[in-house]
DNA sequence: CCAAAAGTGTTGACCGTACACCCATGA
DNA sequence: TCATGGGTGTACGGTCAACACTTTTGG
């Protein structure tokens, strides 16, 4: 309403990244140990200020790249957090973004240099500010997202077995899934192509490897679909 | 990551409100004619800067109050818009909020003094900045929201007829709804109490008035539910 | 008495869910 | 040969979608 821009009302805008990964142990987020005060030694999400020359989406991509070395990753804005005292140091509005990465592409050497480590989503440590809430919101969004998008694409390696895919969904929803029904449903979408290879790393018999059919995948997300468990 | 707060990266944070209302013509949003340059005379959402002493939620409530005189309204954060040049005047990150109001509570005299008017959601004028996108996102969220919450509560007057409720859903989803199936489904939730009154304003026979059962309503949103059309 | 909106049930198709046993293989 | 995880089919019940006629009453 006010036709001028009052200099004194400028404030800091930050982005914080909730980075999800999935490995043999389950679904995890990447957290960083703060190396400076306040809250030195506490765990936090990786974040950074939005510069005046970059969009908030670009800032989120930059932060993700700086801490993981990864480009071209599925990212999504989750929510803007703007309580007055969320950061006791200064007034900061922070916009949370989630990223889904294939944990095999992530260079775990970074963890030492950055003071980072992966935490299972149901065993999180104490976190600074409102970062716990950010993760909670990101998880809920992830659960919603699964209903409109075969999200496994992002979190799994190119080739994967059905038991792994089932495990992923079990982790996301934190509940047991009937494998027969799951197979029936996911295969009926004609989204997966079975390869002539087996992964024998988890059983003697071995499980067939599958790969997403990217054409079908793109068609599906275009015209929308629904995948409920 | 950076343990200091660089003064020069402070930017403006604004909120913009998508105010939804529902009347005999259908689902509408409240728009304002800009009275100052740039884009004088163009239509826009009502917005305002977030002050350093208020949370972003508070800012959204304040802006809504300033332009509508309404308190205690259902509001929800939609999305943060942060392209570098979205506002050509200055770098502004704007957080869109939607509000659902009962249009009967809104004082239409305000429209003259504020240069505001209601627009049907499928007949919107040209809008400044990214406000069109904001409305689009808010509409999509509204459609999602309907699945978890009997949203009619917010947009309808206390007493309403079933044909009105059906019309509301038809407007939100922009498609025809089978009235028999709709009645069956909504009544089976035991969420509505039929009154011994009829509204004869739209037909000779008259339609029964209903009212939400707030207790049932609260129980339902607590433990979650699903209402798909 | 007629126009216009309100109200009312049934059926078939499909989908989700529950559930238990055989298979392949390395050790 | 046995232990371990991988893979498979069916039957039932519930939910959703399609569909047309009767009721009321003011003008």
Would you mind describing this structure in some detail?
With 229 residues, chain A is of the alpha+beta class. The first copy, chain A, folds into 2 domains: 134 residues, Alpha-Beta Complex (Nucleoside Triphosphate Pyrophosphohydrolase); 64 residues, Arc Repressor Mutant, subunit A. Helices cover 31% and strands 28% of the residues of chain A. Chain A contains 7 helices and 10 strands. In chain A, strands 1, 2, 3, 4, 5, 6 and 7 form a 7-stranded mixed beta sheet that branches. In chain A, strands 8-10-9 form a 3-stranded antiparallel beta sheet. In chain A, a hairpin with a 7-residue loop joins strand 9 and strand 10. The longest helix of chain A has 15 residues. The first copy, chain A, is globular and about 65 Å long. Chain A starts with 11 loop residues before the first strand and ends in a 6-residue tail after the last helix. Chain A binds a DNA duplex (27 and 27 nucleotides) through helix 6.
Topology, please?
2 copies of one chain form a homodimer.
Chain A: E1 12-23, E2 26-33, E3 43-44, E4 46-49, H1 56-68, E5 74-81, E6 92-100, H2 109-114, E7 116-120, H3 131-145, H4 152-155, E8 160-161, H5 162-173, H6 179-188, E9 192-199, E10 207-212, H7 214-223
Chain A binds a DNA duplex (27 and 27 nucleotides) through residues 161-163, 178-181, 183-185, 200, 202-208, 228.
Quick structural gist:
The first copy, chain A, is α+β, with helices and mostly antiparallel strands. Chain A contains 7 helices and 10 strands. Chain A has 2 domains: 12-145, Nucleoside Triphosphate Pyrophosphohydrolase; 160-223, Arc Repressor Mutant, subunit A.
């Amino acid at each position: 309403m006010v036709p001028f821009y009052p200099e004194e009302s400028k404030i800091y805008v930050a982005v914080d990244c909730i980075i999800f990964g999935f490995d043999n142990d389950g679904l995890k987020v990447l957290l960083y140990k703060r190396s400076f005060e306040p809250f030195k030694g506490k765990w936090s999400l990786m974040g950074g200020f939005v510069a005046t020359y970059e969009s908030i989406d670009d800032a989120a991509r930059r932060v993700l790249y700086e801490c993981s070395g990864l480009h071209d990753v599925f990212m999504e804005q989750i929510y803007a957090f703007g309580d007055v005292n969320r950061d006791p140091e200064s007034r900061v509005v922070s916009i949370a973004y989630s990223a889904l990465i294939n944990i095999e592409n992530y260079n775990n050497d970074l963890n030492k240099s950055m003071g980072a480590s992966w935490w299972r989503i149901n065993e999180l440590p104490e976190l600074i500010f409102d970062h716990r809430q950010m993760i909670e919101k990101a998880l809920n969004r992830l659960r919603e997202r699964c209903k409109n998008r075969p999200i496994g694409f992002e979190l799994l390696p190119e080739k994967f077995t059905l038991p792994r895919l089932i495990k992923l969904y079990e982790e996301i929803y934190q509940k047991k899934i009937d494998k027969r029904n799951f197979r029936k449903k996911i295969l009926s979408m004609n989204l997966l192509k079975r390869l002539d290879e087996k992964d024998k790393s988890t059983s003697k018999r071995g499980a067939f490897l599958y790969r997403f059919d990217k054409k079908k995948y793109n068609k599906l997300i275009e015209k929308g679909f629904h995948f409920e468990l």
